[in-house]
Amino acid sequence: MSGGQKRRISAPQLMTLFLLARIMHAMIFRESGFRSGTPMMLALICSTAVEAVLAIPAVMYFSCGGSDPAAELFGRGAVWLRAAYSLYFTVICGATVALFTGFLESEFPDITRPLTAMALILLAAYISAGGGIEGLARAGTVVFWLFAVLFAAMAWVNEGGFDWLNVTPMTRGDLPDFVRYFAEDISSSWWLPMFCVLGAYLRNGGARAAYGYLALKLITVGTLILLVTLVLWRYVDVLGYPIFALGAYARNDFIQRFDAINMFVWTVNCVAAAGVYIFISARALPEKTSGRAVMALAAGVCALIVYRSGLEFDNAGFLVFKAAGVLLLGTVVPLAALIVKKRSERCKGI
Amino acid sequence: MDGRRVPARLPAALSDLNEIFGGSADLNTVKFEVSGIRCAVATLEGMVKSADLSKMLFEPLMAYKKRNAAPKDVYMFLCDGGAFSTEKHAVMTLGDAAQKLCAGFAVVFIDGCPRAYAVSAQGFATRSVSEPDSEPNVKGTREALSDSLRTSMSLIRRRIRDPRLRFEIVRAGKLSSTELCMVYIDGKTPEGLRRKTKRGLEKIRTELILTSGSVIPYMAHSGGKFFSGVSTTERPDVVCSKVSEGRIAVLIDGVPFAAVCPALFIENFQTVDDAADRPYYATYLRWIRFFAFFLSSLLPGLYVAAAIHHPEVLSRSLLLNLLASEERTPYPLMAEMLIVTVMFEILREAGIRLPRAIGGAVSIVGGLVIGDAAVTSGLISAPLLIIIGITATGAFCVPSLNPQMTLLRLGNILAGGFFGFFGIALLCTVTLVGACTADSFSVPYTAPITPLTVRAIKDVFVRISPKHRPNGGTVEELNGVSEGESAE
Hints:
- The complex is a heterodimer of chains A (350) and B (488).
- With 350 residues, chain A is mainly alpha-helical.
- Chain A has one domain (11-349): Amino acid/polyamine transporter I.
- Helix content of chain A is 72%, strand content 0%.
- Chain A is globular, with a radius of gyration of 20 Å.
- In chain A, 51% of the residues are buried.
- Chain B has 3 domains: 10-120, no CATH class; 149-263, no CATH class; 277-437, no CATH class.
- Helices cover 47% and strands 14% of the residues of chain B.
- Chain B has helices spanning 10-20, 50-63, 71-82, 94-102, 149-157, 191-202, 216-219, 236-244, 272-276, 279-308, 316-327, 333-353, 356-376, 382-397, 402-437, 454-461, and strands spanning 27-34, 37-44, 88-91, 105-110, 116-120, 165-172, 178-185, 231-233, 248-252, 255-261, 439-440, 443-444.
- The relative contact order of chain B is 0.09.
- With 488 residues, chain B is an alpha+beta fold.
């Protein structure tokens, strides 16, 4: 993570990459006893507020002209810290691919075998990561608009009606759900460690990227929760993937069901997100090695383990791993880097 | 190149020249005397215009009379305006003389003078300025770039009558020593782009340059492999439009096409007629081209994927129709689609390669006879033939992207056939990232869509009236152009 690299992506592009990663997580979110409603909405608002606070060290670090928190702390080596970032995103990549494969297997069982699907996704992500972060960021913007068009189209031709009675006030009994969703959302904030790595490529506007993302996330995920609550509510438990279930109510004269079209856009997003994760993981290895291939293979192994073990993102162990990564790699490391940077600047001033 | 100096003695000079050309039959030498001094003019057969040479060189030389003239006097007479040609050069070495002869110069050797004199009298036969066959239009110019570099240069100069328009010649090709001409507008084209292009052209190591394909790899600075950041055109008006936007065009002597860089993806959907038509109609046509591109690349693959893996997507009546027609055919749907696609490519290729008079017959045989017979005999279903017909017609709307569309079509059929929409999505993502990764001299290929440049995107999906964009814009103003690289 050398600081001398060219800063090539803009704040809106980085924002879009964060959002795509978050949407990917929301898409493959599947939980038993899922209850969308007021607790989930409140949890989203609270967790976004907490994320805004957690992002302050990273935002300040990049606003002060920092480019690489790991290098700031441990010099050019920083092998262990880089390896930690690499490991974290390899696991996230593997889990994302495995859970998406799970979705494919449950909703489209005839398409291909799970192992083939995982291999193909990782191969496409590996090729995509080869284009560098610029290509991924530019493609990410297109994918984002693809999503926007898909959701707009589904909303346009949706036959499901809004039932405002589904919105119930939060009661004391909803507190465990609220806590669960809050923890789930905070632990899914791996955009913070992503920010610490990709901030090095950002031309300017670290604060814009971070807080712009949080605002956009609040609007996007909030709208999705609202839609799911108003249209589906408890039926999500029957239909499985909440966002996917929304498409079940959309049809017109040309398209009878939106399932396959949803899957098309989700696959595009999965490859784009996995490509970004592989790119981030590969940065930990020296440039001369074939880091991308190694990391794609490692992600493949992770995906296989997650798939075979049947883990979900809301599994307790996973929750702790994700949250620890967010706090340590996304907040503590940039905070320490900020302190070191400020100190060294003060020393230079003296 | 032969570095020997031109011998002072005329017989030796002519003999050495003859030796360099190995007694080639097209080397002509004419010997004569000017004020008692023996001279010879060497030319290559068919490379000079005899009538011009006679007027420009022989008549003044024959009229030159001086008592006790020395060889140096005759040489000085030529240098001081004795020959009327606009391009004249002193020649010091035999290699230089040979090169000038190959370029269509007449070289004058004077007995007793250790140097020669080259006079431009090019008169080789070239094709006259013709219509742009590969880029036809309705309301634009009917002139295409010519095989002759000078003619092409004049076609551009006639359209940009500004002294800031620059033509810079670079020679390339070990054997062909072809003249390449960089065309740009001083002050609009970034200096870094000009320098990098020139450096790239100077690096050409191929022996012959017979097509723009020999030059483009040296112009494409970086970026993706599937899409090229360098475009080609045979229209002088397009070249003018591009250079006015701060780009560089490279003309190649002997090739009626110019290579232009940097090129953008969206430019494939813009035509000269867009500027001539009413904005709302031009906008409509532009959208038709966008639609045709996606239709041509995706439709066969989507059809196969939907019919094999996702029949639930299609409406019930459409699905029943498809099933009924597919039941009569012997092959699996994917194989059937592949066969028809490959057949179409064979017919298209045959139509291009055959003489025009017979080319039409191929389309009749292919389209009507084979198509009708295949459907009637039950080998191919009628809906599939309709799909291929629409796809093929769509591909003709965006001819500059035809190679990419053809390969994507084939890839999507395979991906859709094996893995349904999932496979097509994978291929689309890799293609999308490939396009987004491509750039030419730090100008993103997908600009101004991504990275987004709001003021430029107006002219992408909608044709803006020139009244609202009198000065146009330059590629350097697009977002995402790496600072300090294009202007380096």
